[in-house]
Design goal:
The complex is a heterodimer of chains A (649) and B (219). By secondary structure, chain A is an alpha+beta fold. Chain A has helices spanning 2-70, 73-80, 84-98, 128-137, 175-184, 210-221, 265-316, 331-442, 447-460, 462-494, 506-521, 541-558, 589-594, 612-622; strands at 102-107, 112-115, 140-146, 149-159, 163-172, 189-196, 201-206, 232-236, 239-248, 256-264, 502-505, 525-531, 536-539, 563-572, 575-582, 626-632, 636-644. Among the domains of chain A are: 11-267, 2-Layer Sandwich (Beta-Lactamase); 501-649, 2-Layer Sandwich (Heat Shock Protein 90). In chain A, strand 6 (189-196) and strand 7 (201-206) form a beta hairpin. Chain A is rod-shaped, with a radius of gyration of 80 Å. Chain B has one domain (6-47, 54-197): Immunoglobulin-like, CATH 2.60.40. In chain B, 2% of the residues lie in helices and 48% in strands. Chain B contains one helix and 18 strands. A five-stranded mixed beta sheet of chain B has the order 7-13-12-9-10, with no helix packed on it. A four-stranded antiparallel beta sheet of chain B has the order 15-2-1-18, with no helix packed on it. A four-stranded antiparallel beta sheet of chain B has the order 14-3-16-17, with no helix packed on it. In chain B, strand 1 (6-16) and strand 2 form a beta hairpin. The model of chain B is unreliable at 1-7 (pLDDT under 50). Classes of the chains: A alpha+beta (649), B mainly beta (219). The A-B interface holds A 74-75, 77-78, 81, 83, 85-86, 88-90, 92-93, 95-97, 100-103, 116-117, 148-149, 172, 174-176, 203-206, 213 and B 65, 86-89, 91, 104-105, 107, 127-131, 207, 209-211, 213-218.
């Protein structure tokens, strides 16, 4: 924007200047042209004087010389010889002396006695008028055409001592003379001599260049001769000539000879062209100076505007640091100062606003943080609540289960005790019976008796019974022992009577859990035990056993077909560590993150409660211990339990 | 400007036999052009000169308004007759101290010859033809020569010591002549000498006619 302002200022100054200059230039040009024309007119007048002097003075001088030379005794003697050849030779000698081109000796009868060209001898002299003047004035000078050529003639009488004849000496008025005249005048001057006669008009001699000469020739042949005593402008071809004409005195009244003096304006003005160019050059210089000055002034004006504009842009971009340098003590300087003041104020206001903003943000952040914390606490509380709930449910369930198991175990304990107590006795009895029968067989019994015994024994397949009875009793004894074992396990597991912290061997709990669960997977899963702890650990044994059971059930569930479950116990400082590993299908990370959540299960709906691990987690927490898991998908999982060796109340 | 000095080379060749010798030479200007109408005279420094035997007058013609020849050399006491071969009359005159005379406007052969009894140079003119000029060099010695159109000259003379004099109308010296003493002896020798010439203003020939000078008319 300020650029165009600058351009406008420069343009304004330039137009102002150029306008003034051009007006001045035009005025000076017109005045100069007028002056030059007047000057050239003056020059033409001088040139005319010079021409007249050259022509007429030369004629007069020629006449004087001729008069003197014609009085030469030798010449008189030659003329007096009455010998034409001698007279002609003497006239020629005289003509040479005067540097003329043609000489005549005319007798008193006005007839030509001798002509240096030999043409007019015996004929009347061409220019009788000149002789008349010479008779009257003692000499005559005139212009005349001899055989189509223009001459200036001097006619004087030959005195011996009275006139005996006339001598006429002719000097050519030709190109040589014209050139001679031109050499005496300014270069721009041209001279043309024109004959005007009844036959036609023609140029006799001219210093004009061929083109203009042609133009003049056409003009005069159409009798459009610019006759002018005053200077006039005449166009010849492409050039304009300041022209002045003059009639030359002729030796015959029927011959009219005109001299044109002309100044070629183009040539004459040529020296002034330097002035013109100088003026144009000055104009150009002035223009350049004006442009530069204009640009400078425009800069001075637009620079502060530009600075202000830039400052405004900076402020728009939010930069308040740079103020506008105040250099001038004028309106613009005041403007800049005010602008700076405004900028500072704006800057302060914006800073305050920003500070306020920042405070607000901090407050919002703080509040948000507080809300976050509250939320988290709430979530945790919720989680703890859920955990507590699930633990409550579990403990209730376990409590019921424990009671049930304890009841079942107690009820089974008596019959199993009876079986266990009676079976060896039954075995004894059967063994004794069989021994008796065997002795009977070998005894010396009547044939009949023997036969019926044998028959009876065969009927009952005594031999088989004998063997099988022992086997059956052993089997029942075993089964009974087994039942007793199971019952013991159940009782141990439930520990309903052990709801207090006791020092127990964890291995025992593990064994109980395994024996209790192993029936389900004995065929496909190998259990490897690596017990290294073997020290009593104070805990709620029932709860810990429940943890073991849950983990082993999960391990079994993880193994699809064949597999291994490793159970490891060890001690690290004051912590008992139990690891339960399987080489089952393992778990993905997203499942791993959720396995301790209550009600999370991978089993089919209805198959699992989703409480097992969360209960385990809760139990371990209760013991101030921990449960952690590592699992690799496809390779298996490893649950690690950490339990303080001693619980502190 | 009007006094141009031209280099002028004098070449002198001396050829010897027992009693008589031939002096010969060549005159050229500095541009190498032959210089004609120069007169060389050899005057013995010892012993007398042979006396002049009676002779027919020499002729100096005016042909086509020009003296022919331009320069004539004669011994003192000889006569010259001036026949006019032109239709135009001539008026021959001399204002030279060696011999003043005039033959007023005449045609044909004058009745009496002119006798020149004083050595020196006689300059001839015509009263009605300004350009006409001729020279008669009158000398005592019979041993003289005039350079021809090619600048050559030669003189037969006895063995002796001579004062050799060179004259030319344009020689830039008093009396238009220079002199030198030489000994003509057995053997050949070459003498080179340089003199100065004034620019030649007058040839003595008529100017190109007035008509030939021409009128510079418009084409």
């Amino acid at each position: 924007m300020n650029r165009s302002l600058q351009a406008r200022i420069v343009l304004f100054f330039s137009i102002l200047f150029i306008g003034g200059q051009v007006l001045t230039f035009i005025s000076v040009y017109w005045v100069s042209k007028d002056n030059v024309l007047r000057q050239l007119g003056q020059n033409l007048v001088y040139a005319e004087h010079i021409f007249n002097r050259l022509i007429t003075e030369r004629g007069k001088q020629m006449a004087s010389e001729t008069r003197i030379l014609a009085a030469d005794f030798g010449f008189l003697a030659a003329v007096n010889s009455n010998d034409r050849e001698t007279v002609r030779s003497a006239v020629e000698n005289l003509t040479l002396r005067i540097q003329g081109q043609r000489g005549f000796y005319i007798g008193l009868d006005k007839k030509v006695v001798a002509d240096t060209a030999g043409h007019f001898e015996g004929n009347p002299f061409l220019f009788l008028d000149a002789i008349h003047i010479a008779e009257k004035d003692g000499q005559a000078v005139a212009f005349g055409l001899i055989e189509g050529e223009l001459f200036e003639l001097a006619v004087v009488p030959v005195l011996a001592p009275v006139p005996i004849g006339w001598v006429a000496i002719a000097v050519a008025v030709d190109r040589n003379l014209i050139e001679h005249f031109k050499s005496l005048s300014s270069t721009a001057l041209e001279i043309s001599i024109v004959e005007r006669s009844v036959i036609g008009n023609r140029i006799l001699a001219s210093s004009l260049p061929d083109v203009q000469k042609q133009a003049l020739s056409e003009r005069i042949s159409q009798d459009k001769i610019p006759m002018t005593q005053d200077s006039k402008l005449v166009e010849l071809g492409m050039n304009v000539f300041l022209t002045k004409s003059q009639q030359l005195p002729t030796a015959r009244t029927d011959q009219l000879i005109l001299a044109f003096l002309q100044i070629d304006l183009a040539k004459a003005v040529h020296p002034y062209l330097i002035l013109l160019y100088a003026a144009l050059g000055l104009l150009g210089l002035g223009l350049v100076a004006t442009l530069l000055g204009g640009i400078l002034i425009a800069r001075r004006i637009t620079q502060p505007v530009r600075l202000l504009s830039e400052a405004t842009q900076r402020i728009s971009a939010g930069q308040f640091d740079q103020l506008i340098p105040v250099k001038q003590r004028d309106e613009l300087g005041l403007f800049a100062e005010n602008f700076n003041a405004m900028t500072s104020k704006l800057k302060n206001t914006l800073e305050e606003l920003e500070e306020f903003n920042r405070t607000l943000e901090r407050k919002v952040e703080q509040r948000t943080e507080q809300y976050k914390q509250a939320n988290e606490e709430l979530t945790q509380a919720m989680y703890r609540l859920k955990m507590a709930q699930s633990q409550l449910v579990q403990s209730e369930k376990m409590a019921s289960l424990g009671q049930l198991v304890a009841g079942v175990a107690h009820e089974l304990n008596t019959p199993i005790g009876s079986i266990n107590a009676n079976m060896p006795i039954l075995g004894e009895y059967i063994a004794q019976t069989i021994s008796v029968i065997d002795q009977l067989k070998r005894a010396d019994l009547s044939e009949l008796g023997a036969q019926s015994l044998e028959k009876m024994l065969e009927e009952i397949e005594f031999d088989f019974i004998k063997e099988d009875a022992q086997l059956l009793i052993a089997g029942v004894s075993n089964a009974a022992a087994r039942v007793r074992e199971i019952v013991l396990s159940l009782r141990n597991f439930s520990r309903l009577d052990e709801a207090e912290i006791k020092d127990v061997l964890l291995e025992e709990g593990l064994n109980n859990a395994l024996s209790f669960l192993q029936h389900g997977f004995k065929a496909r899963i190998e259990v490897i035990k690596d017990y290294r702890l073997n020290k009593p650990v104070s805990c709620y044994a029932g709860l810990i056993n429940q943890v073991f059971v849950n983990l082993i059930i999960n391990a079994e569930y993880a193994i699809k077909d064949q597999g291994i479950i490793s159970v490891i116990t060890r001690q690290e400082d004051d912590t008992a560590i139990v690891e339960i590993k399987d080489n089952g299908h393992g778990m993905s990370d997203d499942i791993l993150q959720k396995i301790f959540d209550p009600f999370f299960t991978t089993k089919a709906i209805g198959s699992g409660t989703g409480l097992g691990l969360s209960i385990a987690y809760g139990i371990m927490k209760r013991h101030k211990g921990s449960i952690s898991v590592s699992s690799v998908l496809g390779e298996g999982s490893n649950f690690t339990l950490k339990l303080p060796m001693h619980q502190k109340d | 400007m009007n006094r141009i000095i031209s280099g002028f080379l004098l070449l002198l060749l001396v050829t010897n036999s027992a009693y008589s010798a031939t002096l010969s030479g060549e005159l050229k200007d500095s541009a190498g052009a032959a210089v004609s109408d120069a007169v060389i005279t050899a005057t013995p420094t010892q012993g007398g000169l042979p006396s002049l035997s009676p002779q027919q007058p020499k002729s100096l013609d005016q042909i086509n308004r020009e003296f022919v020849s331009h320069v004539l050399v004669i011994r003192t006491g000889e006569s010259v007759i001036f026949p006019n071969n032109d239709k135009t009359k001539h008026h021959v005159y001399s204002f030279s101290p060696a011999h003043r005379f005039e033959i007023k406007l005449y045609s044909g052969v004058p009745s009496e010859p002119i006798t020149f009894n004083t050595p020196g140079v006689v300059v001839l003119g015509c009263n009605i033809h300004d350009w006409m000029v001729g020279y008669i060099v009158v000398t005592d010695t019979p041993y003289f020569a005039k350079t021809d159109a090619s600048g050559h000259w030669s003189i037969e003379l006895p063995v002796n010591e001579y004062k050799l004099t060179l004259w030319h109308e344009n020689l830039d010296e008093p009396d238009a002549s220079v002199s030198k003493i030489i000994k003509v002896i057995e053997g050949n020798s070459v003498i080179n000498d340089t003199v100065s010439l004034k620019p030649n203003r007058r040839s003595g020939k008529p100017p190109s006619t007035l008509q030939e000078q021409g009128y510079q008319s418009e084409p």
